[in-house]
UniProtKB/TrEMBL annotation, chain A:
GO biological process: one example: protein transport by the Sec complex
Membrane topology reported for the UniProt record: Multi-pass membrane protein
Pfam families with a match to the protein in the record: Sec_GG, SecD_SecF_C
Protein name: Protein-export membrane protein SecF
Coiled-coil parts of chain: none
Protein export membrane protein SecD/SecF C-terminal domain mapped to chain residues: 108-291
Gene3D superfamilies recorded: Multidrug efflux transporter AcrB transmembrane domain
Any single GO CC term annotated in Swiss-Prot or TrEMBL for this entry: plasma membrane
Compartmental location: Cell membrane
From TrEMBL, chain B:
All residue ranges annotated as the SecD export protein N-terminal TM domain in the record: 2-103
One example of a Gene Ontology biological process annotation: intracellular protein transmembrane transport
Transmembrane segments: 7-24, 451-471, 478-500, 506-527, 548-570, 576-600
Span of domain Protein export membrane protein SecD/SecF C-terminal: 432-603
Gene responsible for this protein: secD
Chief site of localization: membrane
Membrane topology, as annotated: Multi-pass membrane protein
Record's keyword terms, sorted: Cell membrane, Membrane, Protein transport, Translocation, Transmembrane, Transmembrane helix, Transport
Protein name, as recorded: Protein translocase subunit SecD
Length: 313, 614
């Protein structure tokens, strides 16, 4: 069985102007949304108290809000979590009350009002912790991008390195943009997912770059654009199949994994799709515009090529 | 001949997979409801206790699967959750305060596997249920306390040396000493500099020396404050009766406490936040203990029990409280006799010196005060704590004591060690505060396991079906590799002692399953390409594997770099995710490249083939 049977080279790069416009619009849109709406930071980053309760029947959110207001908690955020029985409550820090006690008090208040209620979980995060996590997360992203830049520059060439890092930044910005536009909660697991997207998208980009390098050496009488087109066509099957299997498992995670990792699965699903697109268009386009050419990939590899040929004989 | 794998390679592959599979098997066995008994401060777990436990359970008619004494603990395996609850209550009542009785789920690993070090994967709190606390040590107090001590210390040192100063006072970031003239200042600076090499002295205008701590001394002070708190928290956690608590330093000034299975978080918090103190008191020698026990306790004295339950008559007046203790550690003197060395701050030193000068030859008692929860609550729903006093040592004062002295006459190095630990526990130099709490109820934990397992299984099945349809015979080989990959991840996770499986970790496994086939897709697509270009099947296999290898390596190394960074920077859930991701990358490369190659070679290699099932 063959997914796509391509006898001829697909002219991917003929669509480069629309692709560039598409990416630029999406990036600008994401950046604007990030500036205006910002991210809906989860408890991990904002600090505060979050309580998860399970009711015996369908939970009456208004009644819960009323009970909490009566118990002295101002403006509690009460929402369903995963099912109509499960409720997630978020409480901002209160002056004069020890932060660590808020969770237990809320549970007490709700269980007094409705004894069948079950405490599923409490999370309290101090205000400083959140700031530190946000700082650490941002740092992790920057360090990842930098390490990758160095590694790819070493293994390939700086134009490819820059191309793949720009593709990664593209994916990260768009994923963050999605979370900002839809105002999905951005918590620690989503941060991990975004970093995993970096890993995944890079995987794709490297496979394409590797093929471009190989073809530069193998095919002597084509120009750069054609070589990139040939390489993208050759790797297209693989790109699509790997994305497909990854999307398959992510769908399973998204549908069956439960509310706790919903955000994680969402970020990865979107990131994998956008990462597939970016490895075809963004990374190679950037390399092309930076003027990558056969000569750039040849000199450092002479020795290796010699070794290659010998083994083939 | 192309595509032949030498026998030794097959053996190595089988060996590696076999080891991983062996260590993955403990996960297949269930868990027993168990009760775990460990000793408190003044007790030991021995065969006598083992007999007592066996008898107690037998008389109450509680059936147990096994009762084993191992590693200073007794583990009683029970048949079900109900009898676990009853057994715990019964044993708690029978054994009293000296022992901690905790409920636990003990893995039902067969003995031969356990002997090989096999154990199931540890589960994170989000899967197991329990409480996670992050506590922060107040470093400012720790450092300020040291400065406070320095003020007193400098005053007495300069006075003893006959150097006249105007004032010594504590300021932000250090201590200032003022002098009347430059000569004295120089003399003092020379003297103090030689005396305190780990401090930094800077001369300022107006005949003033500013003393601050060197970076190293500052780091030591902070480190000590954290270590001390960890020791205290460990002691208190034992009171909670948790089977496998974990108390670990996190970062510079934080302590992560994990209490699996704990539900009453309010109680846990109050016990962790409770304080223990220490008092040095003189023994009342003017009255008879027996009279006091009979009810005639003299005014100004009180009865306090010692560790063996013997009453001691102590004066109520306190010579010194534990917060003057800077450090206490156990050692052996030149004859190998155990002793405890104690250092006091300057205020404590002068108080001690004042008291001991008239009391040489008389006994001095050390009283340990612990605030234990009574389990009852007051009108405000607060737990009621009761101070429990206990004499932990009575020593005869041999000479006039100063700011550093030692307690000798201890029976064993173990006793000396315990005493030092308690002395340190009584001298909390830096207060702590809970900055993060995560409680996961047992039902949520079970549900997380169910959801995570389901996601893995269905994702896995979907990929298996897809690969089989798309690549036929070779798809089957890839599926075998994927299955082995999963077994190896579980095996390696079980082998690494520190690794715990969490929900994000399970997500990492799911992601690995999706991405692991990538290597095979790369190879198989390459083989198809080679076939299209007209190579023979054997050559196509050979070149397919060869040319895909460096691509796979590059792609995986970069993803691994991301995993490493996540591991280094992240905490908690992110760390869990990165561990499974990294293990998954390593195992998937192994299975997708080497294992499939070996299988493909055994299947196709060395035969004249016209077609490949790909």
């Amino acid at each position: 069985m063959q997914l796509l049977n391509m006898k001829n080279t697909v002219g991917f790069l003929s669509l480069r102007i629309p692709a560039a416009i598409f990416s630029t619009v999406l990036i600008l849109g994401s950046l604007v949304s990030l500036a205006v709406n910002q991210l809906n930071w989860g408890l991990d980053f904002t600090g505060g108290t979050q309580i998860e309760m399970r009711y015996e029947g369908v939970a009456n959110l208004d009644a819960i809000r009323g009970e909490l207001t009566q118990a002295g908690f101002n403006e509690p955020i009460v929402q369903n979590y995963g099912s109509s029985q499960d409720v997630l409550i978020r409480i901002a820090p209160i002056d004069g009350v020890k932060n660590v006690e808020i969770g237990d008090r809320v549970v007490n208040a709700l269980q007094t009002a409705d004894p069948g209620t079950e405490k599923r979980g409490i999370a309290f995060v101090g205000p400083n912790i959140g700031d530190e996590l946000a700082e650490q997360g941002g740092l992790a992203m920057l360090v990842s991008l930098l390490c990758i830049l160095v590694y790819v520059a070493m293994r390939f060439e700086w134009r490819f390195a820059l191309g793949s890092v720009i593709a990664l930044a593209h994916d990260v910005i768009l994923t963050l943009g999605l979370f900002s536009i839809l105002q999905l909660e951005f918590d620690l697991t989503v941060l991990a997912a975004v970093l995993a997207v970096i890993g995944y998208s890079l995987n794709d980009t490297i496979v394409v770059s590797d093929r471009i390098r190989e073809n530069f050496r193998k095919i002597r009488n084509s120009d750069t654009e054609e070589i990139i087109n040939i390489s993208l066509t050759q790797t297209l099957n693989r790109t699509i199949i790997t994305s497909l299997t990854t999307v398959l498992v992510l769908m399973s995670l998204f549908l069956l994994g439960g509310a706790t990792i919903h955000g994680f699965a969402t970020a990865l699903l979107f990131g994998v799709l956008i990462g597939t697109y970016s490895s075809i268009y963004v990374a190679s386009l950037v390399a092309l515009w930076l003027g990558v050419s056969r000569e750039d990939l040849m000199p450092t590899e002479i020795e290796k090529e010699g070794a290659d040929q010998e083994s083939m004989l | 001949m192309l595509n032949q794998t030498p026998l030794w390679k097959y053996l190595v592959l089988i060996f590696i997979i076999g080891i991983c599979a062996l260590y993955a098997t403990p996960n297949l066995y269930g868990e027993d409801h168990a009760v775990q008994i460990s000793a408190g401060r003044n007790a030991t777990v021995d065969d006598a206790l083992l007999n007592q436990v066996t008898e107690t359970l037998a008389t109450q008619g509680i059936a147990s699967k096994s009762i084993v004494l191992d590693n200073q603990q007794i583990l009683v395996r029970l048949t079900n959750a109900d009898s676990q609850l009853i057994a715990r209550e019964t044993l708690e009542r029978a054994l009293g305060d000296d022992y901690y009785v905790a409920m636990n789920l003990a893995p039902d690993t067969p003995a031969w596997l356990e002997a090989l070090g096999g154990a199931p994967m540890k589960l994170g709190l989000d899967l197991r249920g329990g409480v996670h606390f992050l506590m922060e040590v107040d470093m400012n107090s720790a450092v300020n306390k040291s400065f406070e001590d320095m003020v007193g210390d400098f005053r007495s040192a300069l006075r003893e040396e006959g150097i006249r100063y105007r004032t010594v006072r504590q300021v932000e970031g250090g201590v200032e000493i003022f002098f009347r003239d430059q000569d004295t200042l120089d003399k003092a600076e020379f003297f103090l500099r030689n005396r305190n090499r780990d401090l930094v002295f800077t001369e300022k205008n107006d005949l003033k020396i500013m003393v601050s701590m060197s970076e190293q001394k500052l780091a030591e002070t902070r480190d000590y404050a954290v270590k001390q708190n960890i020791t205290i928290i460990r002691n208190r956690v034992n009171q909670l009766g948790v089977a496998e608590p974990s108390v670990q330093k996190q970062g510079v000034d934080r302590i992560a406490v994990q209490l699996p299975g704990i539900q009453d978080t309010a109680r846990a918090k109050e016990i962790l936040n409770a304080t223990a103190t220490l008092e040095f008191r003189s023994v009342d020698l003017d009255h008879d203990v027996r009279d006091a026990v009979a009810g005639r306790v003299p005014a100004g004295s009180e009865l306090v029990l010692n560790q063996d339950g013997q009453p001691q008559l102590l004066k109520k007046k306190i010579i010194l409280t534990g917060n003057h203790i800077i450090d206490a550690n156990s050692s052996a003197d030149e004859y190998g006799i155990p002793q405890v060395n104690i250092s006091l701050d300057s205020k404590g030193g002068s108080k001690m010196s004042q008291f001991t000068k008239d009391s040489i030859g008389k006994p001095m008692a050390t009283v340990f005060i612990e605030y234990k929860s009574t389990g009852e609550r007051d009108a405000n729903e607060k737990l009621i704590f009761e101070a429990k006093r206990e004499v932990i040592s009575v020593a005869t004062i041999q000479a006039r004591l100063g700011s550093s002295f030692r307690i000798t006459g201890l029976d064993s190095p173990q006793e000396a060690h315990n005493l030092a630990l308690l002395l340190r526990a009584g001298a909390l130099i830096a207060p702590i505060q809970i900055v993060e709490e995560r409680t996961v109820g047992p039902s949520l934990g079970k549900e997380n396991i169910r959801l995570g397992t389901q996601a893995i299984i269905w994702g896995f099945i979907a990929v298996l079906i897809f690969m089989l349809i798309y690549y036929k015979g070779f798809g089957l080989v890839a599926n075998l590799a994927l299955t082995l990959n999963l077994v190896m991840i579980v095996g390696i996770m079980s082998m690494i002692p520190g690794a715990a499986l969490s929900l994000p970790g399970m997500a990492g496994i799911v992601l690995t399953v999706g991405m692991a086939v990538d290597a095979n897709v790369l190879i198989f697509e390459r083989i198809r390409e080679e076939l299209r270009e007209g190579r023979s099947p054997q050559q196509a296999i050979h070149h397919g594997y060869d040319s895909a290898f460096s691509t796979i390596l590059d792609a995986n190394i970069t993803t691994f770099i991301v995993g490493l960074i996540l591991f280094a920077v992240g905490t908690g859930p992110i760390k869990g995710f990165s561990i499974t991701l990294m293990i998954g990358i390593a195992t998937s490369m192994f299975t997708a490249i080497f294992v499939t190659r070996a299988v493909v070679n055994a299947w196709c290699g060395g035969k004249p083939l016209k077609k490949l099932s790909i």
